[in-house]
Design goal:
seven-stranded mixed sheet; five-stranded mixed β-barrel; 9 helices
């Protein structure tokens, strides 16, 4: 039997070779986790780039690129039959090649990355759902982070004075609420659902990702009237705020030291308490792996390294008026003494 992905990969390579020399494409550069991403569109597709979810960056010659392509350009691709698709339409067998591929036949949606040239092809839906606009090409962020030796964690994050807190937890655990309480207290914001972690030996750094908030109606922390108007996401049943151009969101522009990890868990009570790395891994790793298609083994290993790089704490719902001070204690260099003294 021949290579079941051979025809598909040859077709993707032909599209890649055409678009990179197509002078019709215009490019813009944005921060994309730990790197700059070059986003290339034809003029009629520029509206598909969610500027409120991406922070502009200076051009870099060697930045990875993503080209937004048209359906007629991908119509002749030979997608294999009989090969099961993983969640999000990921072709698991593509990991054995130089490409990483997501294909959703019902929507005719494609995302494919050539890991050698770091050129990606993206065929979005005709109408991109708000949640996907809020986290533009999230699988691509995941793949690039793995290639760079990093890991994308399903978590939010806040920072103050160069020290960052990774805030993990299942959906509706309170990550966004904690972040907005901390914003009001002068913290910077790294993301409410996705943070890229750069591993440096035994230490780690947190990279801000998407400057967006997903918030339920009638939230515990009211939204200031000067915030930009949200977009309702019917699937998540949340308002999504795109804040890249809104200074009031205090979205971080620089990487920060990973000072601590906080895992929010339903049913947890009392002040934040130390949590073993093993239990934190049990709480965090499955949700992180489920969020990002392909490279599950590397994600599991690197999630363990993230948890070993900084103290980990367990928390539940806390009084809002005390939350910022408690987060400050976790980030203080003398945080162990501060916690014991409460």
């Amino acid at each position: 039997m021949g290579d079941p992905l051979g025809g598909l990969i040859d077709g993707l390579a032909r599209i890649r070779d055409r678009v990179i020399v197509d002078k019709e494409f215009e490019s813009a550069h944005f921060r994309f986790g730990a790197r700059t991403l070059r986003v290339c569109t034809r003029p009629e597709d520029a509206h598909l780039v969610p500027h409120g979810a991406l922070v502009p960056a200076e051009p870099e010659d060697r930045a990875p690129s993503v080209y937004l392509v048209h359906a007629d350009e991908t119509a002749g691709l030979e997608f294999p039959t009989g090969i099961p698709l993983a969640p999000y339409g990921a072709l698991v067998d593509s990991v054995a090649t130089s490409w990483r591929i997501i294909w959703e036949p019902s929507a005719r949606r494609l995302l494919a990355l050539d890991t050698v040239t770091r050129v990606a092809l993206y065929l979005p839906d005709a109408v991109v759902p708000p949640r996907e606009r809020a986290e533009f090409c999230r699988p691509l962020l995941h793949w690039l982070s793995v290639l760079d030796g990093n890991v994308v964690i399903h978590a939010g994050g806040v920072a103050r004075e160069g020290r960052g807190l990774l805030v993990a937890g299942a959906g509706n655990a309170g990550k966004s609420t904690l972040a907005r309480v901390c914003l009001s207290a002068g913290f910077d914001y790294l993301g409410d659902n996705v943070v890229e972690v750069e591993l440096r030996g035994r230490d780690s750094r947190l990279h801000p990702t998407y400057p967006t908030f997903k918030i339920r109606r009638d939230p515990a922390v009211p939204i200031s009237p000067d915030w930009p108007r949200p977009v309702w996401d019917d699937e998540a049943k949340k308002d999504i705020y795109f804040t890249a151009e809104f200074a009031g969101a205090r979205f971080a522009r620089e990487t920060t030291e990973h000072a601590a990890t906080l895992v929010l868990a339903e049913g947890a009570e009392g002040p934040f308490a130390r949590l073993s790395t093993a239990r934190a891994f049990f709480l965090m790793a499955p949700n992180t792996v489920a969020q990002y298609p392909l490279h599950e083994e590397q994600v599991l290993k690197r999630t363990g390294q993230v948890l070993a790089a900084a103290p980990v704490y367990l928390g539940g719902r806390r009084p809002l008026e005390a939350l910022a001070d408690e987060v400050d204690a976790l980030l203080a260099p003398e945080r162990e003494d501060a916690l014991r003294g409460r």
